[in-house]
């Protein structure tokens, strides 16, 4: 053997080794991959011969992963997982016009979904699968072509990103709640149940401080993971919440939520479209990116 192939053992031997590591023995590994115990043993022996080092200690009829085997497994298993994911991505794509995009749940429901018919009209062959994700991830380990991120650029290093827009969060409550609990000035909120979104628990303290209210003794209120859950709790009379106005436009127009104080809260954080560096090209990702940026300019 010469060239890079000398570092590529037979895949069946690697599969047997991985199963044996996970199950701690050859018998159950064989059951999983459809081989007899002796066949698994032969595959492991072939791999050990290839590597010129034992990977398991044989103790009677039992086997135990040794130090060399453990080190090899630590390097190999993540690589096999990456290979499976790459194969799944390649086989799952129905065409060269398919994309998989991760989006923040509330953003996807309230900003992205209503605009998708315009994207379809412009690019009828473009197929996009959306999935909800709230935190940055490694594109090398996930089956996504792009993602929508809220934060600052430094939150997600090593990727390309396009600025979309900033948001303004406004205090909102149910009109019936407001009638029963009049709010005449921002300081009155210190006596109200203040609802929060779990990743922005400091938002009320920042809003009150900006309004000239001492928030040092502010007690934490209920928190919700997604903004639309927060909006529902607020509309049901749970208290007052700070929610980005673009996410609750339907509730504001319908009157199920009202704004007691026209004092929006803004920050340096913003929405970004994120994708692997160098992945843009001229294909479907570029089409989606151009459309997203255009839509955001008019947001």
3D architecture notes:
With 299 residues, the chain is an alpha/beta fold. The chain folds into 3 domains: 3-92, Winged helix-like DNA-binding domain superfamily/Winged helix DNA-binding domain (Arc Repressor Mutant, subunit A), CATH 1.10.10.10; 98-166 and 269-297, Periplasmic binding protein-like II (D-Maltodextrin-Binding Protein, domain 2), CATH 3.40.190; 169-254, 3-Layer(aba) Sandwich (D-Maltodextrin-Binding Protein, domain 2), CATH 3.40.190.10. It is 40% helix and 18% strand. It is built from 11 helices and 11 strands. The protein has a 5-stranded mixed sheet with strand order 4-3-5-11-6. Strands 7-10-8-9 form a 4-stranded mixed sheet. Helix 1 (11-23) crosses helix 2 (26-33), helix 1 (11-23) packs across helix 3 and helix 2 crosses helix 3 (37-51). The radius of gyration is 27 Å and the shape is elongated. The mean pLDDT is 89.
């Amino acid at each position: 053997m010469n060239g890079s192939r000398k570092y590529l053992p037979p895949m069946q031997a690697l599969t047997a080794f991985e199963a044996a590591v996970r199950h701690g023995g050859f018998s159950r590994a064989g059951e999983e991959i459809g081989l007899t115990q002796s066949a698994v043993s032969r595959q492991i022996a072939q791999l050990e011969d290839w590597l010129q080092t034992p990977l398991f200690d044989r103790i009677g009829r039992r086997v135990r992963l040794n130090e060399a085997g453990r080190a090899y497994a630590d390097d190999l298993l993540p690589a096999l997982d990456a290979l499976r994911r790459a194969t799944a991505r390649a086989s799952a794509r129905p065409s060269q016009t398919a994309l998989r995009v991760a989006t923040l749940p509330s953003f996807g429901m309230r900003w992205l979904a209503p605009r998708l018919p315009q994207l379809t009209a412009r690019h009828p062959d473009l197929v996009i699968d959306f999935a909800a994700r709230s935190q940055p991830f490694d594109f090398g380990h996930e089956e996504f072509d792009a993602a929508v991120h809220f934060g600052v650029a430094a939150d997600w290093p090593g990727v390309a990103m396009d600025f979309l827009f900033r948001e303004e969060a406004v205090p909102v409550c149910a009109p019936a709640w407001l009638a029963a609990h009049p709010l005449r000035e921002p300081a009155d909120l210190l006596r109200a149940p203040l609802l929060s979104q779990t990743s922005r628990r400091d938002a009320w303290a920042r809003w009150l401080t900006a309004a000239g209210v001492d928030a040092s003794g502010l007690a934490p209120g209920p928190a919700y993971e997604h903004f639309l859950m927060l909006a529902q709790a607020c509309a049901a009379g749970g208290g007052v919440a700070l929610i980005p106005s673009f996410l609750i436009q339907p509730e504001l127009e319908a009157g199920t939520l009202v704004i007691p104080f026209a004092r929006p809260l803004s920050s340096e954080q913003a929405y970004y479209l994120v994708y692997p560096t160098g992945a843009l090209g001229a294909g479907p990702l570029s089409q989606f990116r151009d459309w997203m940026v255009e839509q955001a300019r008019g947001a």
